[in-house]
Design brief:
By secondary structure, the chain is an alpha/beta fold. It folds into 2 domains: 155 residues, 3-Layer(aba) Sandwich (Rossmann fold), CATH 3.40.50; 121 residues, N-(1-d-carboxylethyl)-l-norvaline Dehydrogenase, domain 2. Helices cover 49% and strands 12% of the residues. It is built from 12 helices and 7 strands. Strands 2-1-3-4-5-6-7 form a 7-stranded mixed sheet, with helices on both faces. α9 crosses α12. The longest helix is centred in the middle third of the chain and has 29 residues. The radius of gyration is 20 Å and the shape is elongated.
Amino acid sequence: MHIGLVGLGKMGGNMRTRLREAGHTVVGYDRNPDLADVDSLAAMVEALPAPKVVWVMVPAGDPTRSTVAELKELLGEGDLVVDGGNSKYTDDAENAASLAEKGIGFVDCGVSGGVWGLKNGYALMCGGSPDDIAKVQPAFDALKPAEGGFVHAGPTPGAGHFAKMVHNGIEYAMMQAYAEGWELLEKVDIVENVPDIFESWRHGTVIRSWLLDLLTEAIQSDQHLDKLRGYADDSGEGRWTVQAAIDNAVPMHVIAASLFARFSSRQDDSPAMKAIAAMRNQFGGHAVHTEPPPGGEANPNGR
């Protein structure tokens, strides 16, 4: 298929490569001319055959809203916009309604896979009508892992981003549990070879996971995580998950506590938050206060 892709950063750039490797034609636009295939959003749209499909991978909030508004003026009836960023699910209904005024379809797609998605594929959680989903299915099939990884979460705009939001809330809690366990093992005198303990947990235990793999790799290269500052950002989804739990009267003790732990990390140099920072950098290239692993990104602001 032919597809336009707006935003060619860590995720978008790798997605363009994976789509092209699967045989699809991708016209990419980015404000950075060194990354872009064309020099404007209008030129990207012009290069696509009808019905046009444009996938947006820009930061959530105003950048996404303004991009969707601009695409509304460039696209026409029967065309389709996919928001693959980390937008708040409540934005999707507004974007879908606005585009529908011109007969333009809308799909929201939560994307998980980080900097490893190019090789391993991306988990895709999508919301939108079955007809609109079908228009993008060839791209979904190219981006997802070989087996599984794609779900049509529901026809209501926002279903995909809501699923991704909850996914990230669970991720917060899992990371916090691993980090606290690591800190306790580091603290006591009775235990030695903490990296070897984490390595042993990767095989046959009920707590094995990709996050455990990533933390193990991090502490094998920096056993006490001395190179990291115990500061961990939150990217928004954890807050939104807790707010949705409040709105729906769903008890969420663990995820809420893991979010508040991130806030605590900004007050002192928390050992557990060093482990959180290490895992975030390993799977997503999120900024840390040190040199990153391959595929990661150093924090230019030194936070």
